[in-house]
Amino acid sequence: MIVTTAGRTNEVMKQQAKDAAYLLGCKYVDRNKKTVRSLLSFYKEDVLVAGKERYELFAVNGEEPFFFHPSSAMFRVKRLQKKEYDPFIEACNLSAGKSFLDCTLGLASDSIVASYAVGDSGTVEGLEASPVIAFIVKKGLSSWQADEEDIDRAMRRIKVTAAHALDELKKRQDDSVDCIYFDPMFEEQIDSDGIKPLKSLAVYEEWTSEMIKEARRVAKERVVLKDHYKSSRFEDFNFKRIDRKTAKFHYGIIEL
Fold first, then answer.
1. What confidence score (pLDDT) does residue 147 get?
2. Which of 219, 214, 216, 224 is CA-nearest to residue 181?
3. Which of 54, 76, 225, 243 might form a disulfide with 252, Cβ 3.0–4.6 angstroms?
4. Partners of 49 in the beta sheet?
5. Strand locations in the chain, DSSP E?
6. CA of 71: how far to CAs of 74, 147, 177, 232, in Å?
7. CA-closest candidate to residue 151, choices 71, 56, 95, 91
8. Is residue 238 a contact partner of residue 250, using CB atoms and an 8 Å limit?
9. Three-state SS for 89?
10. Contacts made by residues 34-41, CB under 8 angstroms, sequence distance 24+
């Protein structure tokens, strides 16, 4: 991967791009009025663009750039503000003061909703195996302006860690997190414009009994899985499936 700036740049953006290149261990390249397409063609590497308001990642084999946005979290938090039902919050049994570990952070939509639910007295951490996705999402959570104080505060509270779930779980103490959550890329295809750019960049970690064993050890209350309704992971790893008749994905729960 290389890092560059937006087409219209300045010294601040150049320094941001250089800092990102240093943190991610990759090469900084001056834009010099070149198009992103020409940079992709010349370097044959993904291109991370440091813009005025956000970072965008253009993948060699991707159709659309990847950048942070709160996705469905915006309207889901607004529903919670109205005391409306959210199946994710119910599945994870989240309330003020709880701790939540998202082992598959992605765009952090669920973590934002979780952060709102647990409030200032709770904690939310997201693990992301892809260093560049973790970088982009971490920067986005710290700077995105939703024009809604509750949502902005929820985003700022989330701690992002670039790590593989199993490696990180092994470091954690027994019964140290109320809820541990997995939302892997579905085995079955679900069309969603929000995650299309993410699919080509995500790290697809192997699901093993060891990972679930570690999650059960670290979780105090429950381990929760969100997956396609056709997924075999619910049965393979002994999750109690919560059927949702009108939804293409279900939740699975291991209560502890």
1. 86
2. 224
3. 225
4. 4, 56
5. 2-5, 27-28, 47-50, 55-58, 99-102, 123-128, 159-162, 177-182, 219-228, 240-242, 249-255
6. 7, 15, 26, 27
7. 71
8. no
9. helix
10. 39/2, 39/4
